[in-house]
């Protein structure tokens, strides 16, 4: 009995340390498990927190991106409107600038052209003045004293508006002498003012009048130099002398003196002779 009691005590005593060890082991295991769970929970909590932060950041970034996108759109629209407005204003300003520039250039070219035109006119005027002063026409240089060879033409003229009277038949009558002097002066003016014949013309006269709208008979005297063959063929030819008188009567006579109008179509002219002239 006593031995059984002691055995039980022994077992109890021996089992108690084992149980204590087991209990300590279990407690240690439990603490490790608990720590591990806590670590896992903390880790999961950190991961969840991190994920929530990431989600929040993503959402924030999304919202920020959306906001930024909206702001960008508005800014782009505003910039586009501003640029469009600026472009329109710029185009108008550019057009005005180009117009002013073109007008300025046109005015400049007009001033240049006007200056050149005035310069050309001045140069031309000076050239004409110098030409008139310095130029000497060789045909204007002649010695009238060397013209000694006479040349005569004679013919008849008809005064259309003159009434014939018996006094005109007498060369010594006052009416005959007055009409002769008038017609002589007229013929002298025609030929002395002619550029081609003026230097050679000497005198003119009338020697008779006849009835029939008053027909007047005239003579013309020209003087030529010794060498006059070319003059007889061209300058002092019958055709040249006749045409000078005829052209003058067509151009001037009807307006200048209607009463003593000479009919150009009734002019007659031929080579004359010295016997008609009263020296």
Automatic annotation (TrEMBL):
Biased composition (Polar residues): 19-34, 57-68
PROSITE patterns given in the database record: SEA
SUPFAM superfamilies for this protein: SEA domain (SSF82671)
Cell membrane as UniProt keyword: no
Pfam family, one: SEA
UniProt-annotated stretches for the region Disordered: 1-68
Keywords associated with the record: Membrane, Transmembrane, Transmembrane helix
Composition bias type Basic and acidic residues, residue spans: 1-14, 40-53
Transmembrane regions: 108-134
Protein name as annotated: SEA domain-containing protein
Native source species: Synaphobranchus kaupii
Lineage per the UniProt record: Eukaryota, Metazoa, Chordata, Craniata, Vertebrata
């Amino acid at each position: 009995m006593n031995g059984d009691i002691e055995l039980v005590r022994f077992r109890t005593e021996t089992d108690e340390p084992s149980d204590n060890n087991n209990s300590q082991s279990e407690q240690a295991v439990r603490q490790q498990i608990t720590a591990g769970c806590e670590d896992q929970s903390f880790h999961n909590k950190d991961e969840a927190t991190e994920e929530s932060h990431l989600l929040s950041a993503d959402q924030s970034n999304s919202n920020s991106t959306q906001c930024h996108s909206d702001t960008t759109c508005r800014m782009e629209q505003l910039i586009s409107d501003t640029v469009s407005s600026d472009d329109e204003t710029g185009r108008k300003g550019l057009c005005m600038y180009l117009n002013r520039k073109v007008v300025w250039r046109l005015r400049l070219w007009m001033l240049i052209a006007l200056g050149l035109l005035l310069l050309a006119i001045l140069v031309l005027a000076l050239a004409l003045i110098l030409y008139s002063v310095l130029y000497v026409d060789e045909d204007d240089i002649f010695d009238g004293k060397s013209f000694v060879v006479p040349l005569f033409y004679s013919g008849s003229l008809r005064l259309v508006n003159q009434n014939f009277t018996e006094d005109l038949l007498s060369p010594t009558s006052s009416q005959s002498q007055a009409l002769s002097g008038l017609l002589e002066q007229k013929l002298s003016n025609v030929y002395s003012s002619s550029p081609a014949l003026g230097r050679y013309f000497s005198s003119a006269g009338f020697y008779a009048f006849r009835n029939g709208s008053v027909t007047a008979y005239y003579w013309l005297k020209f003087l030529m130099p010794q060498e006059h063959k070319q003059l007889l063929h061209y300058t002092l030819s019958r055709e040249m002398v006749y045409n000078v008188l005829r052209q003058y009567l067509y151009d001037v006579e009807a307006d200048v003196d209607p009463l003593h109008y000479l009919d150009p179509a009734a002019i007659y002219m031929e080579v004359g002779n010295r016997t008609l002239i009263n020296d």
